[in-house]
TrEMBL record:
Binding positions for ATP per the UniProt entry: 10-15, 125, 134-135, 205
UniProt region (LID), positions on chain: 124-161
Molecular-function GO terms, alphabetical: AMP kinase activity; ATP binding
GO biological process: AMP salvage
Protein's cellular compartments: Cytoplasm
Subunit (UniProt): Monomer.
Gene: adk
Lineage: Bacteria, Pseudomonadati, Pseudomonadota, Betaproteobacteria, Candidatus Profftella
Protein name: Adenylate kinase
Domain of life of the organism encoding this protein: Bacteria
Amino acid sequence: MRLIILGAPGSGKGTQAMFIKKKFHIPQISTGEILRDVIRSNNKNNFKNKIYNDIKKGNLISDNIIIDLVINRLKCSDCINGYLLDGFPRTLSQAHAMKEAGIIIDNILEIYVSDSEIIERIIGRRIHASSGRIYHNKFNPPKIHGRDNITGELLVQRDDDTIEVIKNRLSIYHKQKKILLDYYKNLETFKIFGFPRYHRINGSFSIDQVRNNIFSILIKN
Ligand code: AP5
């Protein structure tokens, strides 16, 4: 099972990716998480400050950095039976690089949600930084307010989860999405080798409903 999960920031990709990886036993490769790990690590990485500043402003990280990170990650042995790419590709160059590297995708899941819902989700989101577990003050609250369900550690708000930054992230997303969608629709129409099937999923339902809809698509495909 080789999947891409696409969607606007805050549409629920990370939340659903957690369910998919558990059910289908495939690793979730979240470019956002990989980048946040680079920022948190003590390793000397030449691009660390640049990555930090770009994420904080809601800008995309340059294609060459992201492409290297993902292609190297996909070489790991846990990807042999499949993978779930979460947040990659986001640009046409990333999609082309993936194809050139021979990375095959069977299904693309696009979660769509209105921008107004996105803003409410982003503002109330809290995360457990070291595990990436995702909560929401209203829609998915932890058992104890402000604490991770498993470790009891404090939850935090991401630096890029502010109204100003989310507006920038959304505007970048809408521009890139059209280009990517055209690219994948074209592959599908002409049945080009390795073409993935494209599925649109309404992400406005509850977390459990969205999960069930995704599972039924994946089981059929
Ligand atoms: P990344 O971490 O990938 O952020 P994103 O794409 O902006 O997506 P989010 O993580 O914000 O949202 P999500 O869709 O996972 O939603 P979630 O499940 O958390 O990337 C961060 C940055 O890294 C980018 O801005 C960029 O700078 C850089 N980057 C990453 N990849 C890159 C790439 N390929 N190229 C270049 N740069 C890249 O849900 C959101 C909230 O809603 C949560 O609180 C959740 O509990 C709640 N929720 C989820 N589902 C529902 C539901 N159905 N109903 C109600 N609430 C829900």
